Amino acid sequence: GARAALERALEIDQTLAGADPSDMRALRDLAVSNTKLAELEHELAGGEVGVEQIADLRAAAAGFRRALEAWSLLETRGGFAAGDEATTRGVHAAIAECDAALVAAGDAPR
Q: DSSP assignment, residue 107?
């Protein structure tokens, strides 16, 4: 399904970005893949928070943090494009939302 496709895309992007850390396109693709997979995990965590939702929230928060690392690296290297700043703000907001939901569920953010 969608998760498997996003995980495969992320795997490819990690390989490409690792092969040439100076490749801005590969780094952007890595940031986008991490963001999309985290968004899916976050969506899956919707509704009442139970054990499965906590696992999805943890996965989403971790994915958003990985995405933020890639976006920050892209910015540091001068690879930001139009809209990237807004995307980065959205990732920050998503991390805060996941962390708040985890705290509300009695689970500390990681």
A: -
pLDDT tens string 56-78: 999 999 999 999 999 999 999 99
Give how far Cα 2 sits from Cα of 36, 42, 62, 70, Å: 10, 13, 18, 22
- The string of DSSP letters for 41-88 reads HHHHT-SS--HHHHHHHHHHHHHHHHHHHHHHHHHHTT---TTHHHHH
Residue 6 to residue 48: CA distance in whole angstroms? 25
What tokens were used for 12? 């490819």
pLDDT, tens only, 8-21: 999 999 999 999 98
Instruction: Report the candidate in 62, 74, 66, 73 with the shortest Cα–Cα distance to residue 98.
Output: 62
Cα–Cα dist 55/23, whole Å: 33
Q: What's the pTM?
A: 0.90
